[in-house]
């Protein structure tokens, strides 16, 4: 709620303040509460708070009154956690996991890169995950332990993990939190093994209160890393420390993960993030556009929300394109401009392959008939292409695993899970198959 209000207020302020004033004073503010007709805004320093009170309070309250439909007031408070040295601004967000891995702690978040609770847009599809994420910050190691967040690409998993990391760090200090990707966990472990510094590696995770690991599916088929991770997991869990994990699928769908670890994950809270519904899509478009300072007419918001917001990542890509196109064309963003700017992409989207199309391409590639591919034959010349077809279906469609299994001759869900793992493994050692996959992908996505 507070977010929606603040986005609306900002949109109005943008229209009435000078752009540079808006950027300098309004953008860095964070709205934290909207209760009893009072909006609480946090500024990063006493000076900034003072300045906003002196120069912009009236404008903010005016806008707030319009948004709320009745007079309302604003209170500006100081939160030094928001303060960030200039040089640190605007690093690519994806670097967070790396930088943190090196220090074992969460580096200070930066405004441009911030993925916080405050700028996470909540809807039906992610409410449980959001609530659980807030809860583990409030009461780590108690109720939802581990918290296992899972779902498709761009649906806000990393955003939520960053928010947990940031909020936990703000409360308990950097030393209490370790936030890294599973890939970094593996890399660091391998480096430690090489240097015979396993003890030091393990030490790093002792004494922390919250362990946050992103993209845990990366541990699939990595025996040694899984053992080590399980070890760390158990030590922390026994000590009632909080563990948060994100994955692209549910524990029982994860290929190549040991059963012990799988059941450890499943024993906690499983919170999925689903594709956004129309209400959330509209809120996301409004929010992301406001963050970028883009003014979008209603029909554009509507169009982008319905056609270009399958997930947060797609939306951000599209807004970037619209912004660039509008700037280069020196035109405002209207519905016409949007159609023009996105025309080349519509084609690609329309051609997103179906299951049937993938099956057909794989048959063509391996000179098999569809009947052969979907038969019960276990001969490698048929079973490998069949598994590969499942793998490509998983990669290029959003179809559930049982639908993929059905398309490939009525196989069940666990057969598909097995196939995905088998292909991933095979790809690591079979260069010819990798080439084939590359060629198939090119054909599939044009
Ligand atoms: P995932 O890790 O699930 O693939 P990310 O967390 O990286 O997805 O999200 C992709 C982008 O979309 C990020 O920039 C993120 O901030 C944005 N995003 C996704 N969902 C939301 C949301 N509910 N509210 C705000 N931003 C979101
Ligand atoms: Mg992610």
Key structural traits:
single chain; 446 residues; alpha/beta; GMP Synthetase, Chain A, domain 3; Rossmann fold; Helicase, Ruva Protein, domain 3; 4 domains; five-stranded parallel β-sheet; three-stranded mixed β-sheet; 8 strands; 10% strand; globular; binds adenosine-5'-diphosphate; binds magnesium ion
Could you give a quick summary of the protein structure above?
The protein is an alpha/beta fold.
Report the sheet with the most strands, covering strand number, pairing sense and barrel closure. Answer: 5 strands, parallel
Mean pLDDT: 88
What low-confidence regions span 5 or more consecutive residues with pLDDT below 50?
84-113
CATH class of the largest domain: Alpha Beta
CATH architecture title of the largest domain: 3-Layer(aba) Sandwich
Kindly provide the radius of gyration, computed on alpha-carbon positions and rounded to a whole number of angstroms.
Answer: 24 Å
The name CATH uses for the topology of the largest domain is: Rossmann fold
Helix/sheet category: alpha/beta
Describe this structure in words.
The chain has 446 residues and is α/β, with parallel strands linked by helices. It has 4 domains: 88 residues, 2-Layer Sandwich (GMP Synthetase, Chain A, domain 3); 177 residues, P-loop containing nucleotide triphosphate hydrolases (Rossmann fold, 3-Layer(aba) Sandwich); 73 residues, Helicase, Ruva Protein, domain 3; 90 residues, DnaA protein, C-terminal DNA-binding domain (Chromosomal Replication Initiator Protein Dnaa, Chain: A, Orthogonal Bundle). Strand 1 and strand 2 form a beta hairpin. Helix 11 crosses helix 12. The chain starts with a helix and ends with a helix. About 7% of the residues have low confidence. The site of adenosine-5'-diphosphate has 16 residues, from helix 6 and helix 13.
């Amino acid at each position: 709620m507070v977010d929606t209000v603040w986005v609306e207020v900002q949109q109005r302020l943008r229209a009435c303040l000078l752009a540079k004033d808006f950027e300098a004073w309004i953008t860095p503010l964070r709205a934290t509460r909207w209760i009893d007709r009072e909006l609480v805004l946090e500024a990063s320093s006493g000076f900034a708070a003072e300045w906003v009170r002196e120069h912009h309070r009236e404008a903010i309250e005016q806008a707030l009154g319009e948004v709320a439909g009745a007079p309302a007031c604003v209170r500006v408070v100081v939160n030094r956690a928001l303060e960030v040295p200039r040089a640190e601004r605007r690093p690519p967000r994806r670097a967070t996991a790396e930088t943190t891995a090196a220090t074992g702690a969460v580096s200070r978040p930066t405004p441009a890169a911030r993925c916080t609770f405050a700028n996470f847009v909540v809807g039906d599809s992610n409410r449980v995950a959001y609530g659980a994420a807030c809860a583990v910050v409030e009461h780590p190691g108690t109720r939802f332990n581990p918290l296992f967040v899972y779902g498709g690409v761009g649906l806000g998993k990393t955003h939520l993990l960053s928010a947990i990391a940031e909020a936990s760090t703000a409360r308990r200090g950097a030393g209490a939190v370790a936030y890294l990707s599973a890939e970094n966990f593996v890399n660091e472990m391998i480096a430690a093994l090489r240097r015979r510094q396993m003890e030091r590696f393990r030490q790093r995770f002792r004494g922390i209160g919250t362990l946050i690991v992103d993209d845990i599916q990366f541990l699939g088929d990595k025996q040694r890393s899984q053992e080590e991770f399980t070890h760390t997991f158990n030590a922390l869990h026994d000590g009632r420390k909080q563990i948060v994990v994100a994955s692209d699928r549910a524990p029982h769908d994860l290929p190549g993960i040991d059963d012990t670890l799988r059941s450890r994950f499943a024993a906690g809270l499983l919170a999925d993030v689903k594709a956004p519904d129309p209400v959330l899509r509209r809120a996301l478009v409004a929010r992301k556009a406001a963050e970028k300072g883009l003014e979008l007419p209603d029909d554009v918001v509507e169009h982008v929300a319905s056609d270009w917001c399958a997930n947060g990542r797609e939306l951000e890509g599209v807004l970037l394109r619209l912004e660039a196109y509008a700037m280069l064309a020196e035109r405002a963003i209207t519905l016409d401009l949007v159609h023009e700017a996105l025309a080349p992409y519509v084609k690609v989207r329309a051609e997103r392959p179906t299951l049937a199309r993938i099956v057909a391409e794989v048959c063509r590639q391996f000179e098999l008939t569809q009947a052969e591919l979907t038969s019960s034959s276990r001969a490698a010349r048929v079973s490998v292409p069949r598994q590969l077809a499942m793998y490509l279906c998983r990669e290029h469609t959003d179809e559930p695993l049982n639908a993929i299994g059905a398309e490939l001759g009525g196989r069940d869900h666990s057969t598909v899970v097995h196939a995905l793992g088998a292909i991933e493994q095979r790809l690591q050692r079979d260069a010819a198959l990798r080439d084939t996959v590359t060629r198939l992908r090119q054909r599939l996505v044009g």
